[in-house]
Design a protein that fits this description.
Elements (H helix, E strand, L loop, with lengths): L63 H15 L6 H15 L5 H15 L3 H14 L1 H4 L3 H10 L1
Helix pairs in contact: 1-2, 1-3, 2-6, 3-4, 4-6
Length: 155
């Protein structure tokens, strides 16, 4: 075999070739090459609740039908003639999905809290609940969640 070195084009993950000489010595610390040890403790991280716990919760005795009626009435009370027809359609879509049983109970409770906070004009809580709904149930609420956001920011 030949002792000649072949010049090969570097690959996408090859480190850069650094040429150091007497006038340019290598840097003393290489921050990029430091490794971080894997945490040895096996304690799980404690997650803080995204929302304050003092939000009025619907009573467990309240039937789901009443919860739907109250929630949908709250949303419909926010609609007025000045709001775009598209928002009305999205609220009707949400109502249809609710009545067809496409929402889990926890989502129904969150929607109740959201509608109640909008009616009470607690927009900070309403924004948090809206984001929480969007993150927890993206498939169920992707078609109408922007209409709720519009109702929050319209006031």
């Amino acid at each position: 075999m030949n002792n000649e070195t072949k010049k090969v084009d570097p690959g996408w993950n090859d480190p850069p070739m650094l040429n150091f000489n007497a006038s340019q010595p290598p840097p003393r610390s290489r921050i990029g090459n430091k490794r971080v040890p894997f945490p040895l403790g096996s304690t799980p991280a404690v997650q803080k609740p995204a929302l304050p716990l003092n939000i009025d919760q619907p009573s467990s005795e309240e039937p789901v039908e009443d919860l739907a009626e109250v929630t949908l009435t709250n949303f419909k009370s926010l609609l007025n003639s000045g709001i775009a027809n598209e928002v009305h359609e999205k609220i009707q879509l949400m109502e249809g999905m609710w009545k067809m049983g496409q929402f889990p109970t926890s989502m129904k409770n969150d929607l109740y809290k959201l509608s109640d906070s909008i009616v009470r004009k607690d927009y900070e809580t309403a924004n948090k609940l809206n984001l929480d709904l969007h993150m927890k149930y993206p498939n169920q609420c992707k078609d109408w969640i922007l209409a709720i956001r519009f109702l929050i920011h319209d006031k």
